[in-house]
Amino acid sequence: MSGGASAIFSLPLSQKNWRDAVRSFLCTEKRTVFAVKVSIERRDGSIVANESWTNDERNNADLADGIAEWIELRSESRDDLDTTITVSGKLTK
User: Fold this and answer.
1) Per-residue pLDDT tens for 20-34?
2) How many domains does the chain have?
3) What is the CATH number of the domain that holds 85?
4) What is this structure's pTM?
5) In the chain, count of helices (H) and strands (E)?
């Protein structure tokens, strides 16, 4: 479970360097533990895929690379899709 969003990043997957943008965005997060929600949407707003992660056992660069790979696999190299990445604090039980 995660707290309120502290950062939201949206970008079109038609952008040539979207993988670098994802990495740059996530690598700037300073919290030790945080949650990430990623969704891939069509331009009409319909959701293609979504998933959530925490960085509990990975560094930010590894998490960013894994998320970029996940986006690539689910976007089927289509450039008519956008992705939104939401970072939030992770609540402990």
Assistant:
1) 999 999 998 888 888
2) 1
3) 3.30.1490.100
4) 0.84
5) 2, 4
